[in-house]
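job 3f2a | input accepted
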Amino acid sequence: MKPLKFLAVTLVVAGILALAYGGFTYTKRTHEAKIGPMELTIQHKESVSVPIWAGIGAIVLGGILLVTGKGK
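job 3f2a | predicted structure (72 res):
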């Protein structure tokens, strides 16, 4: 697969996922302490929202790249 076509398909898929899920969450470790045989870890769940315009923009840009890409 050509790099431009791969990028276009990736953008379209990422845009669809952004619209479907609206964001993602991840776990962030903020503090670790080790006292003898005991370990203490504090984890926070963080969430990132993906704006609707970013998902739509990725789909449109990927579609434009697919249509106007040079097909040899």
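job 3f2a | Helices lie at 3-21, 52-68.
job 3f2a | closed
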